[in-house]
Fold this protein.
Amino acid sequence: MEQQDRTADLDPSADIKQQNQQQHGENIFERIINDPDRLRFHLELEFLQCLANPKYIHFLAQQGYFDNPAFVNYLEYLKYWQQPQYARFVVYPHALYFLDLLQSDIFRNMMKKEPEMNWLHERQINHWIYNKRKPPQRPEAQPSSSDKGSDLQQV
């Protein structure tokens, strides 16, 4: 018993957990587990976000999941996450893109091959490195052909 008290003292999140339990009357994990709809929501969201990882998709392909029609139907079912009211919960948007690609039998078969998986993973990393969103820049004022002789600057 004494060792448990020491562990609780060392856990910085113990106070937060205790406050959460006092405010809500129960642990948030218990609320999720006890509510089948919440549990389903969280499990589907977690699985969907795993699809953002090409190596995980490759693993699923290697294990034969994509050969199972029931699993392919499940992937089709998960497309509801693309609707805005659900997509707002998705942290990794590549998951939605790969979910679209997984609707194709050609893509599912390609992901069985390690070189294709590596190629896709490299493209994903390059996208993260080089395609960062840049803030919109104010366009430079270009004089029109009729203003070439004019000394006035456009603002």
Observations:
- Residues 13 and 58 are 36 Å apart (CA to CA).
